[in-house]
Design a protein that fits this description.
Transmembrane segments: 59-77
Number of helices: 5
Number of strands: 0
Order of helices and strands: HHHHH
Number of domains: 1
Distance between the termini: 30 Å
Oligomer: single chain
Largest sheet: none
Keywords: Membrane, Transmembrane, Transmembrane helix
Structural class: mainly alpha
Helix content: over 70%
Radius of gyration: 13 Å
Length: 115
């Protein structure tokens, strides 16, 4: 995968993760979800500094709605969704950014989001 592709995917992934985390936090109102939202927002800003796309906001708002629905389905569903997506994000970063220190920090933050 070339540089543009992986940065584009990471950008949209973090936009979606930010929306999902915000949606879950709006429903669950727990500190851990607020903290996750703040982390995901910082990751989105980092990748936005590398690449921009008009798809960022549509992805954010779509996943915001999905996050609200996920949060409403209860902690069991929320846990499965969050853990599945975090595992995918970590695998993506490890595979595509193996030697970047800032990405290693992002991966460590992502690991703390598991429920």
């Amino acid at each position: 995968m070339n540089e543009v592709d992986k940065d584009f995917l990471a950008l949209l992934g973090e936009a979606g993760a930010t929306g999902l985390a915000k949606g879950i936090f709006l429903v669950r109102k727990e500190e851990r979800f607020r903290h996750t939202y703040k982390d995901e927002l910082s990751h989105w800003r980092y990748f936005a500094s590398r690449k921009r796309s008009w798809l960022e906001l549509p992805v954010y708002y779509l996943l915001l709605v999905v996050g609200i629905l996920t949060g409403m389905l209860g902690l069991g569903v929320t846990k499965r969704v969050v853990n599945y997506l975090e595992r995918g994000a970590i695998n993506f970063y490890v595979k595509n950014y193996p030697n970047e220190d800032i990405i290693k920090e992002i991966v460590e933050q992502e690991k703390r989001h598991f429920l």
